[in-house]
Amino acid sequence: MLALLVAFVVAVVLAACTEPEDATPTPLNTDLTVGGSSGAPPELQYRAPLDVPEATSEVVWPGAGAELVDGGPLLLNLYAQDVSDGTVLQNTYTDAPRWRALTDESIGRDLRDLLRGQRVGARLLRLEEDDGVPVALVVDVLPTRASGEAVAPVEGLPTVTLAEDGAPSVTIPPETTPPAGLVVQPLVRGDGNQVEVGQVVTVRYTGVRWSDGDVFDTTWADDTAPLSIMIGIGEVIEGWEQGLLEQSVGSQVLLVVPPDLAYGETANPLAGETLVYVVDILDAQFPVTAEEAAEGGADGTGPDTTGDAPADQGESS
């Protein structure tokens, strides 16, 4: 019999199969409880030092989205504490979620086994000892593509078709003049929170030139991570700043960006071009400060998963 039984929260799955708005701890025992709401850092409650005699895993709440596929992509928020003293060892809520694959090589066998069969939206807990340190790891499973209500296409705009994995292909209407102003057209309307200024937004996107329909950039290529950027501080072109603001997480948005809201008359290879983007909004979160994350916060997730923002990109090779 385990000396340590981890309490966990089971969210009520409504008939609509939505993610939990809030998860109030309802512990089965008082050793450790995981609280906090969906989309926010977890709140761990326990009496330190907490003994972890052997590894255990639990579902804090189940997901209601797409089922995870072996070898498939993962977008994860990760939060880990040393439960001997409460030191935060890892917290992706301080910057952006991590891009991984459901393989032993990417995340290790134990975490792969924990995630196998789970669905997008799940929150999971693993307790184990790592090099003598007792660790509580909470994993939030985020979507890897847009999901929501399809929106009818608008005549005269570029058309978008999706591959089986969700990768978009864009067709520019022939013999048409590009719009003079910014066009923001949702293709899929997600049911998440709206994007706000100051949030770190994680997206997958494809960009094509209106002039010839050629792809100049995409995060849908093999081994390419989503892009995480902060809205409202000039990290991206103005067309993105305006076009993504107030869009719902989970949405897929078509942006037609005129030159003056893209690269204008700069030395960028895309200067003077009207650019068309299809953007899947996967996540939006306000970064947690170091004080809010408590002491520690060492990031042991491996290579950085952020890419070049559309404010800095040039011609793709």
SSE order, one letter for each helix or strand: EEEEEEHHEEEEEEEEEHEE
Question: Which bin fits the share of residues in helices?
Answer: under 10%
Let me know the number of strands: 17
The unreliable regions are 1-30, 295-307, 312-317
CATH class (first level) name of the largest domain? Alpha Beta
Mean pLDDT: 85
CATH architecture descriptor of the largest domain = Roll
N-C termini distance: 58 Å
Structural class: mainly beta
Question: What is the global morphology?
Answer: elongated
Major sheet? 7 strands, antiparallel
Q: From the alpha carbons, calculate the radius of gyration and give it in angstroms.
A: 21 Å
Here the CATH topology of the largest domain equals: Chitinase A, domain 3
Number of helices: 3
Number of domains: 2
Estimated share of beta-strand residues: 25-35%
Describe the structure.
This is Peptidyl-prolyl cis-trans isomerase. There is one protein chain. The chain is mainly beta and 317 residues long. The chain has two domains: 32-142, Roll (Chitinase A, domain 3), CATH 3.10.50; 149-285, Chitinase A, domain 3 (Roll). The chain has three helices and 17 strands. The strands form four sheets. Strands 9, 12, 13, 14, 15, 16 and 17 form a seven-stranded antiparallel β-sheet that branches. Strands 3, 4, 5, 6, 7 and 8 form a six-stranded antiparallel β-sheet that branches.
Could you outline the blueprint of secondary structure elements for this entry?
Blueprint: E1 32-35, E2 43-46, E3 56-61, E4 73-82, E5 87-91, E6 98-101, H1 104-107, H2 109-115, E7 123-130, E8 133-142, E9 149-150, E10 159-162, E11 168-171, E12 183-189, E13 200-209, E14 215-218, E15 227-230, H3 238-244, E16 252-257, E17 275-285
Antiparallel strand pairs: 1-2, 3-7, 4-5, 4-6, 4-8, 7-8, 9-12, 10-11, 12-16, 13-14, 13-15, 13-17, 16-17
